[in-house]
């Protein structure tokens, strides 16, 4: 089989969603072509709908036989969820429209490389998309990977601590959401901590959860906001009981 490799560079576009600018860039497109391998008939493109609330990656290709379509993000297979829609439509004359839609894209979930591979028995083509988020000056940014710790508090009770390091040029406010998506409040079991570190504009936010039980398992969200923008991070707690 004759193999031809083709590399096409495409310019990116910049979109703005609220106070966060999103830059979507096509890095490269590779075509490994035999005589009947898939080929592009419309260059891959990226766009947004609904004021940036939906990110769309799409292209059209031609294949003499029905191809398989696979999307990956890094080393992980991308599957449909309540946020992600994968579409594969046969349009006739051996033409196919391939797309991915991401609803409410965020830096924490969607930054990185997405690769779509179209393959038939004669060859394959790939389209690589790199999604980068530009943070407004002064907005909160994370300084390290969030972590979940265990500790013993003053009275000897066991506690779980959600620990987040971040930087913000303006005074931040912190909101914690429980696995049901409801705003958390301090109580005899729940304590919020916000400490400023020695480095300028650097903070540590913590959620301390005492006497934890299996019912406390789930994904918690920390929302950090100031006048320049906001950042969110998810931490998943698994307690076996």
TrEMBL record:
GO terms for cellular component: axon; plasma membrane. Keywords: Immunoglobulin domain. GO terms for molecular function: cell-cell adhesion mediator activity. Residues 38-132, 140-238 form the Ig-like domain. It holds the Pfam family I-set. GO terms for biological process: axon guidance; dendrite self-avoidance; homophilic cell adhesion via plasma membrane adhesion molecules. This is Ig-like domain-containing protein. It comes from Romanomermis culicivorax.
